[in-house]
From TrEMBL:
SUPFAM superfamilies: Protein kinase-like (PK-like) (SSF56112). Residues 22-55 have a biased composition (Low complexity). SMART domains: S_TKc. Residues 101-367 form the Protein kinase domain. Pfam families: Pkinase. The gene is Dere\GG10432. Gene3D superfamilies: Transferase(Phosphotransferase) domain 1. PROSITE patterns: PROTEIN_KINASE_DOM, PROTEIN_KINASE_ST. Residues 15-78 are annotated as: Disordered. GO terms for biological process: long-term memory; medium-term memory; positive regulation of gene expression; short-term memory. This is Protein kinase domain-containing protein. GO terms for molecular function: ATP binding; protein serine/threonine kinase activity. It comes from Drosophila erecta (Fruit fly).
Length: 456
C-alpha cells in the first residue's frame, strides 16, 4: 500500500498511516483496513496505529499537504486559528510497550505522566514516548494535547510529535522526537547563562510562542522545564508540553502543579476553582519570568503577591514608577532590559506587551555588571560587547587614591549630619594596643603543639 498523505488522520475519523500493523484495537480483532476507490484515488480507513509508513520512517508533520476538512466539522471563524482547533476523536489502538518498543531508560516522571526513551524496533528509530496516566486524565484531554503538539510540529522551534498514538492498560501514549541535551533546567547553572545564550533562547521561544498566538492558542505553562535543548550552544531549542494549551478566549481554571513564581498576579488572586478567560498576556508574563531565570539561575520572586512577597512588592513599585530605585535583584541589568522587563512583567495584564516584543532588544546590552569576588576590585566599563560579565581589574590606576577616599567618606558623613573628624593618631594607637594584646596572649607551647598537629 502506498504512503498516505501526512496529517490526514487529524481531519478524518479512523484514518492512519501504514498498513495497521499487528496491534490490537478495542473495536477490531483483526485490525484489517478497508480501501475504496474514489476519483481514481485510493483511500483507506483504519484505526490510528503506532507503526511506520511504507517508506520505513516515522512520519513528521510538514507544512504542506493538508487534506481538506471533513463535512462533519463546522466551518471555523476567520480569526480563530482555523483547522487547528478542530480536535478529532481519534481511536487509539490497545497494545503494550513491548509490542514494538524497547524501553532504554526513563527520562523524567511527574504527577501526570512519565517520559520514556525508547527504540522503535520496526524502524530502529530512537523516539521519546510520553505516557500519560489514564486515571489522572481523560481521553479528550489527551487527544487535545496530542493534536495541538502534532499540528504545531512543523514550526522549527516546537517539539515534533510523530503520527503515533496508542493506549496501554494504564497509559495514553504518543511519540515525540528526542532532545539529546535534555531540558533547559538541567543546562542552567546556579548563576544563569551567558547573555548571548539567553538572547538565542529568547529569540527562538518568542518565535514559537508568536506562532502559537497567531493560531489563537495560549501555552499557559511556560517554564524552563518545558524548553528542550538540541545543541550545546543553545542555537536550537524547542518548546514542548502542550497539556495546558488552550484556545484564546475560553474560560479555564488555573494550571495545576506548576511553579508559583510563574503564575501571573491576576491568576494568583483568584479563589479556588474560579475560572478566568485565557489570554496570550499570561504567556508574556511567564516569558518575562523565564528571561530572568535564564540570566540569573533563579526566579525573581517566590510569588507575584505584593503583600506577602517583598521582592515582588519592590519590583511593582518600580514598574508602576512609584519609585526610581531599581530593585536589588535587578540591578545587574541594563536600562534597556529593565524597560523590557517592565513591559513583560506589568502587574496590569492590559499593559503587557506581545510575546515578540523582545526582538526590539536583541541588539542592546542586557547585563551591565556582575558582583565582584574581590572587595578591592573596581568596575571598569567594558568595551567588548561580546562578553557577558563586566571586567574587573585590581590595577593601581583603577583604584581611587587615599585622598579621594577620604573626601568621599567625609562627603557621605556630612550628608547624614555626621561631620566628625577622624583622629589618625587615635586609630594608630588602638591598632598597636590590639597587637600588643595578641602578643601578650601568645603561648609558645600551645602554638608548637598546634604546628605539630598540622604537620601530622
Amino acid at each position: 500500500m502506498g504512503t498516505i498523505e501526512k496529517r490526514s488522520f487529524s481531519f478524518r475519523l479512523r484514518r492512519s498511516f501504514g498498513d495497521g500493523g499487528s496491534t490490537n484495537s478495542r473495536n477490531s480483532n483483526n485490525n484489517s483496513s478497508t480501501c475504496t476507490n474514489h476519483n481514481n484515488q485510493k483511500r483507506c480507513s483504519t484505526p490510528l496505529t503506532p507503526t511506520s509508513t511504507s517508506t520505513g520512517r516515522l512520519e513528521v508533520p510538514g507544512a504542506a499537504s493538508v487534506s481538506r476538512r471533513s463535512s462533519i466539522y463546522k466551518k471555523p471563524d476567520k480569526n480563530d486559528g482555523g483547522q487547528i482547533h478542530l480536535i478529532p476523536d481519534v481511536e487509539l489502538p490497545l497494545m503494550t510497550f513491548a509490542d514494538q518498543y524497547n524501553i532504554e531508560k526513563t527520562l523524567a516522571e511527574g504527577c501526570f505522566a512519565k517520559i520514556l526513551l525508547c527504540r522503535h524496533r520496526p524502524t530502529n528509530t530512537l523516539v521519546v514516548l510520553k505516557a500519560v496516566h489514564a486515571e489522572l486524565t481523560t481521553i479528550k484531554e489527551f487527544q487535545k494535547e496530542f493534536h495541538y503538539n502534532y499540528e504545531l510540529s512543523h514550526h522549527h522551534h516546537i517539539l515534533s510529535a510523530y503520527a503515533v498514538a496508542f493506549q496501554t492498560m494504564d497509559y495514553y501514549v504518543f511519540a515525540m522526537e528526542h532532545a539529546p541535551y535534555g531540558d533547559l533546567a538541567s543546562n542552567i547553572g546556579p548563576n544563569g547563562l551567558h547573555e548571548n545564550a539567553c538572547k538565542l533562547i529568547s529569540e527562538q521561544l518568542s518565535s514559537a510562542l508568536g506562532f502559537m498566538h497567531s493560531k489563537s492558542l495560549v501555552h499557559r505553562d511556560l517554564k524552563i522545564e518545558n524548553i528542550l535543548v538540541f545543541t550545546p550552544d543553545f542555537t536550537r531549542v524547542k518548546l514542548c508540553d502542550f497539556g495546558a494549551t488552550t484556545k484564546k478566549g475560553l474560560l479555564v481554571h488555573k494550571v495545576k502543579h506548576t511553579w508559583t513564581s510563574c503564575v501571573p498576579p491576576e491568576q494568583l488572586e483568584l479563589i479556588k476553582n474560579e475560572r478566568f478567560q485565557c489570554l496570550p498576556v499570561s504567556d508574556s508574563w511567564q516569558f518575562g519570568i523565564l528571561l530572568y531565570n535564564i540570566l540569573t539561575g533563579n526566579p525573581p520572586w517566590q510569588s507575584a503577591d505584593w503583600v506577602k512577597d517583598q521582592s515582588y512588592a519592590n519590583f511593582m513599585k518600580y514598574e508602576q514608577r512609584k519609585t526610581t530605585k531599581v530593585p536589588d535583584n535587578f540591578r545587574r541589568f541594563s536600562p534597556r532590559l529593565m524597560r523590557c522587563f517592565r513591559k513583560y512583567l506589568s502587574h496590569d495584564p492590559e499593559d503587557r506587551c506581545k510575546i515578540t516584543e523582545v526582538a526590539k532588544y536583541m541588539k542592546d546590552r542586557w547585563v551591565e555588571c556582575r558582583i565582584s569576588t574581590s572587595k578591592s576590585a573596581t568596575l571598569i566599563s567594558p568595551t567588548n560587547h561580546d562578553q557577558d560579565s563586566c571586567i574587573y581589574l585590581n590595577q593601581r590606576e583603577g583604584r581611587l587614591s587615599g585622598d579621594e577616599n577620604k573626601l568621599r567618606f567625609k562627603r557621605m558623613m556630612s550628608t547624614y549630619g555626621l561631620d566628625i573628624p577622624i583622629d589618625q593618631a587615635m586609630v594608630r594607637r588602638r591598632v598597636w594596643d590590639w597587637l600588643s594584646t595578641c602578643d601578650a596572649n601568645f603561648d609558645p607551647d600551645v602554638e608548637s603543639l598546634h604546628a605539630l598537629d598540622l604537620l601530622q
